[in-house]
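Good morning,

Attaching, inline, the backbone tokens for the sequence recovery test we're adding to the shared suite. The designed sequence is right after.
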């Protein structure tokens, strides 16, 4: 099954829904802005994937990895967009440096353990 990815802004995070069978589902909407006309895409997280939305808030930019699922029931066809990974967009402080080296791999300018100043 092919996996897809979409980046956009979280518009809405719905409450967790628990069915009589014990099945849990949580839905959220992401607005894309890479098209001429923005699109509101509704995703669902099921079972243990519902926890992915605990740290997501409306207005936050995210990249969602998802699968398309479809089934037929009594002659009607249904499609769901099932998210399996939700990553917040990196904040500017977390972004890579200008030379392409990730900030956490850069060497400090001065030795942090030095007891005396070099002058």
């Amino acid at each position: 099954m092919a996996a897809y990815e979409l980046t956009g802004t979280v518009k809405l995070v719905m409450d967790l829904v628990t069915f009589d069978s014990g099945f849990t589902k949580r839905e959220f909407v992401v607005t894309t802005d890479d098209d001429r006309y923005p699109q509101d895409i509704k995703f669902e997280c099921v079972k243990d994937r519902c926890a992915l939305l605990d740290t997501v808030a409306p207005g936050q930019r995210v990249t969602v990895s998802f699968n398309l699922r479809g089934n037929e029931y009594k002659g009607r066809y249904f499609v769901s967009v099932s998210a399996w990974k939700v990553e917040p967009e990196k904040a500017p402080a977390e972004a890579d440096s200008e030379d392409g080296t990730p900030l956490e791999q850069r060497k400090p300018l001065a030795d942090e353990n030095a007891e005396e100043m070099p002058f």
